[in-house]
Amino acid sequence: MDWTVKAGKLSPEKLRSLIFNRLHRRRSDILLRPGLGEDSAVIDFGDEVCVVSTDPITGASCRLGWLAVHVACNDVAANGAEPVGIQAALLLPEGVQDEFIGQLIDDMDAACAQLGIEILGGHTEVTTQVETPLVVITALGRAPRDRYVTSAGAQPGDIIYVTKGVGLEGTAVLASDHRETLLSLGVEEAVLQRAAGFFDRISVVPEALAAAEAGASAMHDITEGGFCGALWEVSAASGWGCEVMVEAVPVLPETKAICAALQLDPLALISSGSLLITAPPQVSIVEAVARVGAKAYPVGRVAAAAEPVLILPSGERRRLTMSVEDELWRFLAGK
Predict the structure, then answer these.
(1) What is the pTM of this model?
(2) CATH for 151-333?
(3) How confident is the model at residue 60, as a pLDDT?
(4) Is residue 329's pLDDT more than 50?
(5) Number of neighbours of residue 58 by Cβ within 10 angstroms
(6) Using alpha carbons only, what angle is made at residue 332 by residues 331 and 334, rounded to the nearest 5 degrees?
(7) CATH number for region 27-144
(8) Is the pLDDT of residue 136 over 70?
């Protein structure tokens, strides 16, 4: 068997051949099942649906529990579902300290308190099979049956929005876990302190629920592969292309500074905390998101085309490739 794959997500080709094409059992009450660009399952429960999503945290060490809860809950919220609770699988290396475990659970509990959800259970294990802690979270949410949202819902003519700024999670991880490297490259201490604070902006639950209620046609939590990866996945799920003006994509000053120092592309940096939304022009996404204290920026449109395209400041049109390597993994691989 060929195990020569890079760190990160499996390629779309491998997902299709090794996973999706081997899933043959179908139930009538499963409304959304595994597919490119879809991070959750949607299960019919009558007047409501249950939305379920699972996510690991593998590229961060600081505030691991807080990040794990929010990242998983972001996925169900991106389907228009209100998170209800989580289950956690904690795989811990031999020699792990009690203090670490206690802090991990405290951070998870604090994230749950912010979201108004519970830790429903899970599994803990100390194992020789991991060298660093691995946290895997399954989030469960609920939504009205007639108002859940999928990545496949984007339609030609829809406006594409991005909330807050891209690269939030990656910026916070780099500022926290690689502070000394960044200081040596000339990034100011004040910039790193502000960037580490981006962990507190990781949740997209309020703006996702507001956008779903307003009439968003599709949403996608911008995680691994960053904005470029999310854009490609929405295009793959919906079957439509898109055109995005690169200059319109919001990148915060701290993200610009850290990415410039490390020679990373902020548009391909893991971006939990930022949400990609599509909606018909008559839907007031900017106003809906503003009512919950977030900003949404129009960056382009869904197009009746075969592929997503980035329009550079020079006017050059750059086609997005099928597989986007996340800049955080590229940085970690080079250390």
Answers:
(1) 0.92
(2) 3.90.650.10
(3) 64
(4) yes
(5) 15
(6) 70
(7) 3.30.1330.10
(8) yes
